[in-house]
Amino acid sequence: MARRTYWKGYLKLSLVTCPVAMTPATTESEKIRFHTLNRGTGNRVVSRYIDAVTEKPVDEDDEVKGYQSGEDEYVILEDEELESVALESTRTVDINVFVPRDSIEWIWYDTPHYMVPDDPVGEEAFSVIRDAMAATDTVGISRLVMYRRERAVMLEPRGRGIVVWTLRYGDEVRDPDAYFGHIKEVAADKKLMTLLKKLIDERTHPWDTSMVKDPVQDRLLDIITAKKKGRKKPAKAKAEPEPEQPSNVINIMDALRKSISAEKKAKR
């Protein structure tokens, strides 16, 4: 399949510059999408913006962005005002700082993109920047206008290319102490830890992409294919039985021993 270019521009480090191209590293194009139809006519239903007070349709030219400043009070921002706060250059990834690769926690990662050289002449400069980051185990930090917003981005060397991650804004990441801080620190029993490690070892396998397969999507495709061919839809998948809720305190040691025994029987 031909590579679809989403963004073209320049990668810059001090006086070293090279043309690059980017494309999203993930896709949702394979997901099943539905349209809303009129059951009576079979035609698609069109959505329109309606004025909340007059209940009349609003023309596209009259739609503007508004920031709520109070109850039923809004500050209107025009397109020119929104564009004025963006970066002057939207086509240059200028790396202005490097940080250790493992110093940015996963929770800050947002959306990945593949970056590749966009001109044979610039491949050497691209390779030098990539390999230098890999050799020093660092990632580059820059800023870029993407998806109509200025984003902080992280450049991570990966194989022969670079992965550009958009990073979440500071106010998008919640403080974990607000959720984990109340959990009491309990010293784990050594015997329990030994059994639990054994159970984990029994269930440890090499990573495979089939582990993240979407069974719901597969069943939907079966239903759609059957209906297109005029066949009866496939039988409904059986739901897994809900685990029984314990009526009293569980003996963790017994539960782990039974689990390990069941794992061994399943393997045999």
- Count of extended strands: 10
- The CATH architecture assignment of the largest domain turns out to be Beta Barrel
CATH class of the largest domain: Mainly Beta
Proportion in helices: 25-40%
- What letter string, H or E per element, gives the SSE order? EEEEHEEEHEEEHHHH
Number of domains: 2
What are the low-pLDDT stretches, counting only 5+ consecutive residues below 50?
A: none
Residues in β-strands, percent: 25-35%
Sheet bearing the most strands, described?
8 strands, mixed
Describe the structure.
This protein has 268 residues and is of the alpha+beta class. The protein has two domains: 111 residues, Ku70, Chain: A, Domain 2, CATH 2.40.290; 80 residues, no CATH class. The chain contains six helices and ten strands. The strands form two sheets. An eight-stranded mixed sheet has the order 5-1-2-7-10-9-8-6. It has a two-stranded antiparallel sheet with strand order 3-4. The longest helix is centred in the C-terminal third of the chain and has 16 residues.
Keywords:
268 residues, extended, alpha+beta, 2 domains, Ku70, Chain: A, Domain 2, 25% helix, 6 helices, SPOC-like_C_dom_sf, DNA_bd_Ku70/Ku80, DNA repair, DNA damage
Write the layout of secondary structure elements.
Layout lengths: L6 E7 L2 E9 L40 E6 L2 E5 L1 H6 L7 E3 L2 E4 L8 E9 L5 H14 L1 E9 L2 E10 L2 E7 L9 H4 L9 H13 L12 H14 L23 H16 L1
Parallel strand pairs: 1-5
Antiparallel strand pairs: 1-2, 2-7, 3-4, 6-8, 7-10, 8-9, 9-10
Would you summarize the structure shown here?
The protein is an alpha+beta fold and 268 residues long. 25% of the residues lie in helices and 26% in strands.
